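Notes from hallway chat w/ T.B., transcribed later so I don't forget. T.B. wanted the structure written out for a chain they're using in a teaching module, and asked if we could keep both sequence and structure tokens in one place. Agreed to drop them here.
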Amino acid sequence: MAERSTAAVDVADNSGEQSLTAQADQSTADGVAKNRERDTDSDEAQENTGTGGSGKPSPPELHSGHKLARRYRLEECVTRLDGFSSWRAVDEKLRRAVGVHILPADHSRARSVLAAARSSALLGDPRFVQVLDAVEENDVVYVVHEWLPDATELTTLLAAGPLEAYDAYQMVSQISSAMAAAHREGLAHLRLNPNAVLRTSTGQWRIRGLAVNAALRGISSDTPQRTDTESIGALLYAALTQRWPYENDAYGMSGLPKDIGLIPPDQVRAGVHRGLSELAMRALANDGATASRHESPCTTPEELVKAIGEMPRIRPPEPAFTTPPEYQRTTYQQGTYGRPAPHPGAPQPVPAPPPPLQSRTGKALKWAVSALLIAALGLGSWQLADALMEQGGKADDTNKTQTTDKDDGDKPTAPLKRIPIESVREFAPSGSGIQEDEVHLAIDGQADTAWITPQYKGYANFGNLPQRREGSGLILDLGSVKDVSRLDVSMYRSGQTTEVLAADADISAPSSLSDFSQRLTKLSATGPSLQVELKEPIRTRYVLIHVTELPEDGSASLFRGGISEVEIKG
């Protein structure tokens, strides 16, 4: 019976994950250091040609409609290469699309593929396309992963042209942060290219094939952090210039001209952001080109994240407003109907007033009308004054009654309205979640359900585990930027050390503490509930309830916490 791989975190024994790079075939180690030559269109072009007589085991005889584990129905083969195949499939149990990699159990890479898939599943970082199953049965090894129908490959995005500076900044920032988290857990990608980077419909960047893509192709590296960092530099270079930063054409893009070396992106294309251009050069292995810029190279994703943090933040472009059409007067105006419109620029004739009445009858009529008007005005004024005097006392009494209830300077305020929370996810800056399948319980409107942490032993700061050194908590996504005035948080247990932070309005998909620059409360121990009432509303889309220490759980050496319900108003 197949055993499903999960990413659940154990309480006290989750301090490390196994590294993948030593499990790959050593026969390709020399070729991986120059992965920029492997990752070309010619490599991708072989994906539908079979094994090409390589002598490796042939993939199982599979076809559309075939089922694995009586659950995964194969729909379309998207890759067939080097003894394995990749498919778009349907999980009939959960009624969702999935991706599946399949290879024979006696394939030389089957063991390393299984190990890579299970290690990737343990990471559980939402910035990566998740591994859902890794199984060996009936002489077949298969790996099931998420399928994102609303996501677009970077390859497709760049086919339309280079990315704007803000989009390129978001891409390199999110990809670098995700890869830094993976390497902290001992996982490398080693095949990070435009086909492996996806942008979702919400603007979040995600990475697919962590560890698994390299294992499928037998790729390894003696310097996995340097390899992945250089790949991120190549992604940024391509995003800024729509050119692949090596001599070979790849991923639908032209390579650089031969014999000129690696030139900075701002020399390849006019208008490239100078800071991003320098960042790409620092990440790429460029034979000393960074020395001319007096900047040290970035050799790990962590160093790249630090370099991005030192850059001035790139703001999103201002929305473009179209100029309304100029107001046009119609010709249907007094004195012009039925006449031709005057020529533009011609002087407009001023209509003469009607001549005054000149006869004796006219003069008498004028005097009579004037007398009647004066009499009417006098009578109206007397009646108005009399009415005001009669109502004056009542008005004074009314004013006195009103002033006793409310000061003159007070203004009525509109009642706050509840802001719907579109989604919620765990705050996991290390990339390792703890109870991600329960986060929805904190916004389900039921006080008797909660997102609850595991029980940690010995230390209140989440067991003093390295991956929990920044604590945990929940990131609430309001769907769009809103004016937030109040938060009501029901805690699962009193005594949790908590703070509430918010991201700036221009932040997209925040994942680290540095992304939440607006502090709404101080870090302190909280009771059974936490109320935040702001004097002035803040503009944000993302709110972080950050928990750093947990209360005791029935014993002086056991600790547990959580969040029962969150409500946001504005």
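Follow-up for T.B.: The CA atoms of residues 335 and 352 lie 12 Å apart. Might be a good example for the class.
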